[in-house]
Amino acid sequence: MLLKLKGLKKYFSIKKSMWGTPKSFVRAVDEVDLTIWAGKNLSIVGESGSGKTTIARLILGLITCDSGQIFFEGNEIGHLSNKDLRPFRQQMQMVFQDPYSSLDPRFTIYEILKEATTLNRYHFQTSLAMHRRTEELLSAVQLKTDILNRYPHEFSGGERQRIAIARALMINPKLLILDEAVSSLDVLVQEQIIRLLLEIQKNFGLTYLFISHNLRVVRKISHTIAVMYKGKIVELASTQEIFRNPLHPYTQELFAAAIHYQPVKRIKDYEIPEDAVLQDTGNEHFVLQ
Amino acid sequence: MRPESLLEIKNLTIGLSEEAENKTIVQGLSLSIFPKTIAALVGGSGSGKTTTGLAVLRLLPPVMDITQGEITFQGKDMLNYSIEQMRQLRGKEIAMVFQEPLYAFNPVFRIGQQMEEVLIYHCSLNKQQREQRILDLLDMVGITEPQRVAQSYPHQLSGGMRQRAMIAQAIAAEPQLIIADEPTSNLDVTLQAHIMDLFRKLKERLNLSILLITHDLGVVTHLADDIFVLSEGRVVESGPTQMILAKPQHRFTQELMETFR
Questions:
Q1: Phi, psi of A56 (to 5 degrees)
Q2: 3-state SS of A71-139?
Q3: Is the model's pLDDT at B143 over the cut of 60?
Q4: Around Cβ B207, how many Cβ atoms within 10 Å?
Q5: Contact criterion met (CB below 8 Å) for B31 and B9
Q6: Fewer CB within a 10 Å sphere, N or C end of chain B?
Q7: Could you give the angle at the alpha carbon of A97 between the alpha carbons of A93 and A100, nearest 5°?
Q8: What pLDDT, on a 0 to 100 scale, did the predictor assign at position B21?
Q9: CA A169: distance to chain centroid?
Q10: DSSP assignment of A217-254, as one string?
Q11: Do residue A157 and residue B219 have CB atoms under 8 angstroms apart?
Q12: Angle at Cα A69 formed by Cα A64 and Cα A71, nearest 5°?
């Protein structure tokens, strides 16, 4: 087991009283249980505002949870100090949605890749070893190795995303979180990046946590899919199972939109009862009921 | 027999001006859009689809030039229009919906004010009529609280709402043709489906023609009457949607179809 989330909760206050006590909340992540096994990619799918990105930020310790636990390879990391968290953070990296803002425009590609190691206090024996590593990764993401002295603006969106992936791999992480990593790219480039990610996974022994609003995009890359709605996981099953038989009305809506490009008229928002729990309907297909 | 085309582009070639190595961006592109139809211009990034859309409205950036070809709208040669004639045409005859409405709207004016601008310029309505018309338009694009939205600033709305408001603004002066450049690329898939459905309804209701520019062939399969597939500045395949879906001839079209199967 690589990562386990248990009863994870994060509320954001949106209104405060005169005295600063919060009056109302957004339930960004609400009692989420989730397990990621090493080598088995998990995708979290849901519309904007459903809490997908908040989960990613909680896992990385960029924000702290209100309650619940996060286990990384059996170690509880949800409430560690920054210093104690560091050895675990080195094993998780993130690729962001927009490659136009995630790469510093004043850094050369070499500096971008190098920064990932210095920030994580990851040392190479010699600068030659460091150089070798950058070249190895650039060829892994199918870029030429002579681009190290160039700047991000010289590259297209797809190429930049490859650079961002190479940067994330610099320190040999075990878990790579891809937050809408292909959403801003055109469909053909999306395909290329996904094929590339699958290739890299074979060679580097990684596990992906893929976050997307589009069921179609995650189909090829995930073993398991979790559907999120209003901070809760409403459905969880293997990719084949969820595509064969989407059970929750919200999953069906996502399905219609992503696969058949058909809108579903939502008469009112889906009710989630307070005491609802994920229940197995057979075939390890869990639905919130 | 099909009626006469509304917009006809013949052999359009667009190049970068001389300093920039004479690179061509669009190469001999021809397409026609018929009244009350939806046409889709599909291609990857950098294929010249946005450039084509901008060329129709003569909004090309200064470094690009139309070096060859004809653009006729309702039988009239648009390339001979003066700047003033183009101004009259934009919004009134042909309107544009941009990809990212957050940048297309002016951030310091309320949505209602920006829509009113179109009405002031193109329609002769008094203040009261304009206000009523703005609310009607917002209602027509499926916004449930037109009053509130009209008084909001662009950043106060969600992405889907902004895009609906942008479409409302585009149809304000009752144009014949709307050019929509990647109108849903930044939206969730669920919203995307709703916006596309809105285009279909507007087409029926207002007798519009729509030119949809997109990289996602799947999005337009249920919507477009005709598809033009663009690759590296050339139309590599075109025809009625059903025909293209049933028998994609060009390798590039087949690749595009692979992505949504």
A1: -60, -40
A2: EECCEECCCCCHHHHHHHHCCEEEECCCCCCCCCCCCCHHHHHHHHHHHCCCCCCCHHHHHHHHHHHHH
A3: yes
A4: 11
A5: yes
A6: N
A7: 105
A8: 65
A9: 15
A10: HHTTT-SEEEEEETTEEEEEEEHHHHHH---SHHHHHH
A11: no
A12: 105
CB–CB of A263 and B197 under 8 A? yes
Closest residue in chain A to residue B255, using alpha carbons only: A188
Q: CA angle, B73 as apex, B139 and B248 as ends, to 5°?
A: 85
Contacts of A272 (CB under 8 A, 6+ apart): A229, A230, A232, A234, A288
**Pairing of β B177-181 and β A286-288:** unpaired
Closest C-alpha among B18, B8, B2, B114 to residue B62: B18
Query: Is pLDDT at B103 greater than 80 in this prediction?
Result: yes
pLDDT one-digit tens code per residue, A136-182: 999 999 999 899 999 999 999 899 999 999 999 999 999 999 999 99
Residue pLDDT, tens place only, A42-74? 999 998 888 899 999 999 999 999 999 999 999
CA distance B113 to B116: 5
pTM: 0.85
Q: Give SS3 for B5.
A: coil
Helices (H), B90-220: 101-104, 111-122, 127-140, 146-150, 159-170, 189-206, 217-220
The structure tokens 């889906």 sit at: A270
Looking at beta carbons, which residues of chain B come within 8 Å of A188? 44, 215, 255-256, 259
Tokens of B90: 């934009």
Spatial contact of A9 and A31, defined as CB atoms under 8 Å apart: yes
* Contact criterion met (CB below 8 Å) for B46 and B110: no
Distance CA B47, CA B51 (A): 9
The residues pairing with B178 across neighbouring beta strands, listed in sequence order, are B95, B210
Q: Sign of the C-alpha dihedral, residues B96, B256, B43, B2? A: negative
- Band (B22; pLDDT cuts 50, 70, 90): low
CB atoms within 10 A of CB B143: 22
Best of B41, B141, B190 to disrupt the A interface (most A CBs within 10 Å) is B190
Is B260 in contact with A48 (Cβ distance < 8 A)? no
Q: Tens of pLDDT along A187-205?
A: 889 999 999 999 999 999 8
Q: Is B259 within 8 Å of A191 when comparing Cβ atoms?
A: yes
